[in-house]
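User: My instructor asked us to take a sequence, write out its structure as tokens, and then describe one feature of it. I'm not sure where to start. Here is the sequence I was given:
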Amino acid sequence: MNLFNQSLKELVSVIIPVYNTENFLEECLDSVCTQTYDKLEIILVNDGSTDYSEQICNEYAGKDNRIKVINKKNTGISDTRNVGICSSHGNWLVFLDSDDVLRDDAIEVLYRTAKYKGTKMVVGDYQEFDTYVNFENDRNFNVEVLSVEDALEELLIKQPGRWVTTWAKIYDRNLFEEIRFPVGRIYEDTYVMHLLLEKAGRIAKLDYKLYCYRQSSNSIMGVYGFNKIDDLYTAYLLRMDFLREHNYLALYQQQKDLLEWRLHHKYMEANNIEKKEWCKIYRKYYRSNFGTFTWKYRIIGFANCILHKM
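Assistant: Let's start with the prediction itself. The structure tokens for your sequence are:
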């Protein structure tokens, strides 16, 4: 029996937050509309764009009846993704950023893998690009089904960059019954990915580059600021709490050691101006997590806080 017989296909919702990406949006939407898997619901959530993005969304919706456009005031990517989730009807969810591009068979391969392996989540691979998309010609790939603990090890230690992102993956929509992206946070993926892995139970790791991530200085991830660092370390601490509460003690210890090391070495590498900002972050986590620090970093942290009185 052909799995992709029309009567057996399930609806896949592709959720695309849109904010001021007029220069890249058409390329993104073309990559979705021409997917080899065609039973799609394409949800464009315009987060108060001030450029031509809304018009482009409407133009594409007029050409493809699978596209639904939602316009809202600007509230950030977390709330925008949450609106997309609540507005979706698909059995499966795929997330795509509006300046990125999918390989033509990305959704088919993700969906096929989920069905064949009987998993509620599939983690694909990605490649970076700046201007021109050039996917590798090789369409062969390997699939491995991982336990939650093995998947968490991939997320935390082995391949964090690949596993922490919301995109390049497919999710059973039931995984988001009680999980939403935290509104107002910058590293929203870091707050939820471990929760999704835990809920999925078994996760398929797909070694296939099916997503192109655009390196852009205008993207959220391309803008440097200490509010980002504070947000990231808050996410790390919540993730450590999760590991401890769910008895992943070896992973918890590794994350604790890594957090201590990062805090100290980022502080030591900073220039005089940056040191003041780093010390604010160092002091915040030193005070609230003194009991979890090793004695070495307790002493170092105490000295740094005395040195920069704030």
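For the description part of your assignment, you could build on this observation: The beta strands are 12-18, 40-47, 67-72, 92-95, 101-102, 121-129, 142-147, 169-172, 202-214. Try explaining in your own words what that tells you about the chain.
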